[in-house]
Write a structure and sequence with these properties.
Number of domains: 2
Oligomer: single chain
Distance between the termini: 86 Å
Strand order of the largest sheet: 1-8
Shape: elongated
Largest sheet: 2 strands, antiparallel
Number of helices: 13
Length: 304
């Protein structure tokens, strides 16, 4: 089996078919004077994570819903339609945050940008319960950074690019995605409601906060006042709570205690809502029938 087939990469992929570890070396340097400056950002394909969004929305001074609308485009992470997001580009494919000096949001740039030309390669071992974290290397024709003399280990490069903090905060989300992909058909296609939950808890943090602080949520989940106070003000705490809630929704990992009788009450409320909708539909159907009957009678009177 060729290396390309082993890693599932097409022949044209810039990702090299080699797995790197923390102590492997990387020969690379990017700087303002390099001839390919801004070339990578001119052809941007940047997938973003929950922690990326927290940093970026704060940098730009906007709420998550506005950020998602103005700066992202959706795609599907897997065949079951689990939603992912990429940074929006202009019509030529350039990152919207690129300027002549480089990156206008450099201090809060996404995880993908920090790793480049390396990348995170999370893998699930067949024999181990835990995921394995390795790294990959991207070599694109336009990039001259590989010709520079600077040599350091992957571990040193991660530290230099301050990517460790990003990985630590996103770790549970990576594990959730990996588990979803590894279980595949075992859990079936997620419901539309659970996919909406995934999107909101992963990306639309401020809308998720309103959901968590709603009366219906508080009636359902048994959290103390300090926990709710933290979720109301702390984006990181809210993000991490969202990861727990998603594991509960997708995999039944019950880490968030529900109030006694809450499930039964939800079932009762849903039955009442469904009954109300049914009655409303019946009334609407009867109204239309009556209107049709009257229209028919009026038409008959005109004919005579």
């Amino acid at each position: 089996m060729s290396e390309e087939n082993k890693f599932g990469l097409p022949n044209s992929s810039p990702v090299l078919p080699v797995r790197l570890e923390l102590d492997d070396t990387l020969k690379f340097r990017c700087h303002r004077g390099i001839s390919c400056w801004n070339e990578c950002c001119s052809h941007a394909d940047v997938t973003i994570t929950p922690y990326d969004i927290i940093r970026l929305k704060k940098n730009l001074g906007m709420d998550s819903s506005t950020f998602l609308k103005e700066h992202t485009v959706p795609f599907e992470l897997d065949a079951h339609g689990v939603p992912g997001l990429k940074l929006r580009t202009n019509e030529e494919g350039a990152c919207l945050f690129m300027n002549e000096e480089g990156c206008s949001i450099y201090a809060d740039r996404p995880t993908t940008c920090r790793y480049y030309p390396s990348g995170l390669l999370a893998m699930k071992s067949v024999t181990e319960s835990n995921d394995e974290r390795h790294f990959l290397l991207v070599k694109e024709e336009h990039c001259k950074g590989h010709n520079e003399d600077k040599i350091q280990t992957i571990a040193q490069y991660r530290k230099e690019q301050a990517v460790e903090e990003y990985d630590d905060y996103n770790d549970e989300w990576y594990r959730l995605i990996l588990k979803k992909k590894s279980t595949g058909p075992a859990i079936g296609k997620p419901s539309e409601m659970s996919l909406q939950m995934f999107f909101m808890a992963s990306y639309d943090m401020d809308r998720f906060r309103r959901f968590v602080m709603s009366d219906s949520f508080i009636k359902t989940y048994d959290l103390n006042d300090d926990e709710y106070a933290s979720l109301e003000t702390d984006d990181i705490a809210l993000m991490q709570f969202g990861f727990r809630l998603m594991k509960q929704v997708f995999f039944g990992e019950m880490s968030i205690k529900e109030r006694e009788g809450a499930w039964e009450e939800r079932i009762k409320e849903r039955k009442e809502i469904l009954e109300y909708r049914k009655q409303a539909e019946i009334i609407e159907h009867q109204r239309k029938q009556e209107e049709a009957r009257k229209a028919s009678l009026d038409s008959g009177k005109k004919d005579t």
